[in-house]
């Protein structure tokens, strides 16, 4: 079997006296949808922050194996922009769009985050750059079609509905062409119709072969989409399995799901 795209082992994060992550092991393979669930304060977002370079973990390893790579690379200690360049993109629990820019420009920025020009801050106004910009605009527009926002391409991001803003964040993350997409509570604050549309969108993205790791409290979404689920409590993994195994696991019911 090939190496997982993401292989996390022994991940530990201390904030002063608080151990937010405690020797967590987790992996995601190509094409999988994996969910990370657990009660408030379990350490889920801290996990994303450690994997994406926002925090440097106290201990443990974060390895990524990209398609075609013989050996994994370590993401530990890399700054977030370099983690994105290696092929790991994320969305945030609280929407973080460039509200005064257009919907299309928001997605184009995602693409620039993957290119060297953006890292160097040197977008030169010469003919080849204009050609590149045109290509990036076209690629970004096709992503807007995927998330059903193409009609709103020239609208300011701040004018979108809540559900549409969440879909725009996903398009911006996809514009970086990630090997793995991390979604932090993508359904938070959505109404049932918006959540259903999100489930269909995530299914469609996954059917293109995109590996996805998501944090979510909405169990309908988690159970409908996940190939595998990890359950955390107090920074530790308390269970791992497919949706049926998790639904019927007594420890998970006690710590998180509760009785029906
Ligand atoms: P939720 O489902 O509510 O989003 P979570 O599972 O994502 O919760 P985290 O936000 O990762 O949980 O928090 C895990 C623990 O780490 C909590 O006790 C939290 O207070 C603590 N924590 C997180 N970030 C920091 C920080 N920057 N400084 C100090 N403590 C922190």
What percent of residues are in strands?
Answer: 15-25%
Q: Would you tell me the structural class of the helices and strands? A: alpha/beta
Number of helices: 10
The radius of gyration is: 19 Å
Strand order of the largest sheet: 6-7-8-3-9-10
Gap from first CA to last CA: 38 Å
Classify the helix fraction into a percent range: 25-40%
**Assembly type:** single chain
Shape: globular
**Which ligands accompany this protein?**
adenosine-5'-triphosphate
Listing every helix as H and every strand as E from the N terminus to the C terminus, the arrangement reads EEEHEEHEHHHHEHEHEEHH
**Largest sheet properties:** 6 strands, mixed
**What is the mean pLDDT?**
90
Give a brief rundown of this model.
This protein is an alpha/beta fold and 260 residues long. The protein is 39% helix and 23% strand. It is built from 10 helices and 10 strands.
Provide tags for this entry.
six-stranded mixed β-sheet, 10 helices, 260 residues, binds adenosine-5'-triphosphate, alpha/beta, 39% helix
Describe this protein's structure.
The longest helix is centred in the middle third of the chain and has 20 residues, at 127-146. The chain has a 6-stranded mixed beta sheet, sandwiched between helices. It is built from 10 helices and 10 strands. Mean pLDDT is 90; it is low at 117-127. Helix 5 crosses helix 6 (162-174). Helix 7 (192-207) links the parallel strand 7 and strand 8. The protein has 260 residues and is α/β, with parallel strands linked by helices. It binds adenosine-5'-triphosphate (ATP). Residues 15, 18, 20, 38, 40-46 line the site of adenosine-5'-triphosphate (ATP). Adenosine-5'-triphosphate (ATP) binds at residues 15, 18, 20, 38, 40-46. Pfam families: ABC_tran, BCA_ABC_TP_C. InterPro entries: AAA+_ATPase, ABC_AA/LPS_Transport, ABC_transporter-like_ATP-bd, BCA_ABC_TP_C, P-loop_NTPase. Residues 6-259 form the ABC transporter domain.
């Amino acid at each position: 079997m090939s190496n997982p795209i993401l292989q996390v082992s022994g991940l530990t994060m201390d904030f002063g006296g608080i151990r937010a992550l405690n020797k967590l092991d987790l992996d995601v393979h190509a094409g999988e949808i994996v969910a990370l669930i657990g009660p408030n304060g379990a350490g889920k977002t801290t996990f994303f922050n450690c994997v994406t370079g926002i925090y440097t973990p106290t201990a443990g390893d974060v390895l990524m194996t990209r398609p075609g790579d013989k050996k994994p690379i370590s993401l530990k200690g890399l700054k977030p922009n370099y983690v994105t360049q290696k092929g790991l993109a994320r969305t945030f629990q609280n929407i973080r769009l460039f509200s005064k820019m257009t919907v299309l420009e928001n997605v184009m920025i995602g693409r620039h985050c993957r290119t060297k020009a953006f890292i160097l801050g040197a977008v030169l106004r010469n003919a080849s750059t204009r050609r590149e910009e045109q290509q990036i605009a076209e690629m970004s527009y096709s992503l807007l079609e995927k998330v059903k926002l193409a009609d709103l391409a020239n609208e300011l991001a701040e004018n979108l509905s809540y559900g549409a803003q969440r879909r725009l964040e996903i398009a911006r993350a996809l514009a970086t062409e990630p090997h793995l997409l991390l979604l932090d509570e993508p359904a938070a604050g959505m109404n049932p119709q918006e959540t259903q549309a999100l489930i269909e969108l995530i299914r469609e993205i996954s059917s293109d072969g995109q590996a996805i790791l998501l944090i979510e409290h909405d169990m309908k979404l988690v159970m409908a989409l996940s190939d595998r689920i990890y359950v955390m409590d107090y920074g530790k993994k308390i269970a791992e399995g497919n949706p049926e195994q998790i639904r019927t696991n007594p420890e998970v019911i006690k710590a998180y799901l509760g009785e029906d």
